[in-house]
Specification:
about 80 residues, mainly beta, Nuclear Transport Factor 2, Chain: A, elongated
Length: about 80
C-alpha cells in the first residue's frame, strides 16, 4: 500500500505526539495523535490528514524493542466551519 500511495506526493510531512506509553513486562503500548500534510506531485492543494494511532511493542532477547502490532485511524482533516 505504501509503495503505491506515497510516490504520488512531492512532499510528506508528519507530526506525531505520544500521549501515553505503558510497559508491562516484555510488552509495551504507546498511543498518540498524528497529522500529515501531503503535497500532490500533480499540483493542487495540499491534503491535510489527522488521527490517532496505537502500537504494541515486544522486548527482544537482546533487550531491544520491536513493533509487534500497530493501528491508526488517520482521515482527512475536516474543513473549518464558516
Amino acid at each position: 500500500m505504501y509503495n503505491s500511495f506515497f510516490p504520488q506526493f512531492s512532499s510528506v510531512e508528519q507530526t506525531a505526539t505520544l500521549e501515553e506509553v505503558e510497559v508491562a513486562g516484555d510488552l509495551a503500548y504507546a498511543w498518540g495523535t498524528e497529522s500529515f500534510v501531503l503535497v500532490p506531485m500533480t499540483g493542487g492543494s495540499p491534503i491535510e490528514m489527522q488521527g490517532k494511532g496505537m502500537s504494541i511493542l515486544r522486548r527482544q532477547p537482546d533487550g531491544s524493542w520491536k513493533f509487534a502490532r500497530g493501528i491508526n485511524n488517520t482521515a482527512p482533516r475536516a474543513a473549518p466551519s464558516r
